[in-house]
Design goal:
Elements lengths: L16 E7 L14 E2 L2 E2 H11 L4 E6 L3 H10 L3 E4 L7 H12 L7 E4 L9 H12 L8 E6 L2 E9 H8 L7 H6 L5 E4 L15
Parallel strand pairs: 1-4, 1-6, 4-5, 7-9
Antiparallel strand pairs: 2-3, 6-8, 7-8
Length: 205
């Protein structure tokens, strides 16, 4: 059994964004260890962490599961914190819920950017675009910006602490994606090449 590696969050600005990177799955379609696959000389995890920082995230936290030791070592090398999710095999929704609950333990966590580790093309420009969309909701505490797909909104998403606590945690029988879809003042950005994810090894070419 692995112990989660806890982080210390302190003295962050009032509009601080913490990135949450789900990287716990076994990636069976990819053939395993997708988080550590290389693209242009960097691992997918390193690309996503770098994009989060360049986009203005004050902290970057990774949820690990399968291949925890290797993922944790890579995260350490690139300066990200790690939470090990024992129930990672329950799927991404479970890993997201676990990660969000860890971050809500820190009072200085005001906004959370959810960006999966297999989306290396979601660059800093799109992260900043999400942050600008949040500004449109400055008059309310519950704020949510998500990526819109033909089947509905999803991740990447930028959520305020109040949305996570008052909307998502208040609906324990719903997945995060369902709660986001029902949010009446949801702001969205379009999907496209920037939200392309890596499912198979050939997606890296």
């Amino acid at each position: 059994m692995y112990a989660p590696q806890y982080i210390t969050i302190s003295l962050l600005p009032s509009n601080s964004i913490i990135a949450l990177i789900p990287a716990a799955g076994a990636a069976t379609r990819f053939g395993g260890e997708k988080q550590l696959a290389e693209l242009d000389g960097k691992t997918l995890l390193a690309h996503v962490v770098s994009n989060c920082r360049a986009g203005g995230c004050d902290q970057v936290c990774v949820v690990s599961g399968d291949n925890h030791s290797k993922v944790a070592e890579e995260a350490r090398l690139i300066g990200a914190s790690v939470y090990y999710h024992e129930k990672w095999a329950d799927g991404m929704a479970s890993s997201l819920d676990f990660g969000l609950r860890q971050l809500m333990n820190f009072s200085d966590c005001k906004q959370v950017l959810i960006l999966p580790c297999d989306m290396p093309w979601f660059t800093e420009e799109w992260i900043k675009r999400m942050a600008n969309k949040v500004a449109e909701l400055a008059g309310q505490s519950e704020q949510a910006v998500a990526t819109i797909y033909p089947e509905g909104p999803g991740v990447p998403a930028l959520l305020s602490r109040a949305f996570i606590e008052h909307c998502y945690f208040a609906s324990p029988n719903k997945k995060l994606r369902e709660t986001i879809a029902e949010f009446p003042t949801l702001r969205t950005i379009p999907s496209g090449p920037h939200t392309r994810d890596v499912d198979y090894r050939e997606d890296l070419s």
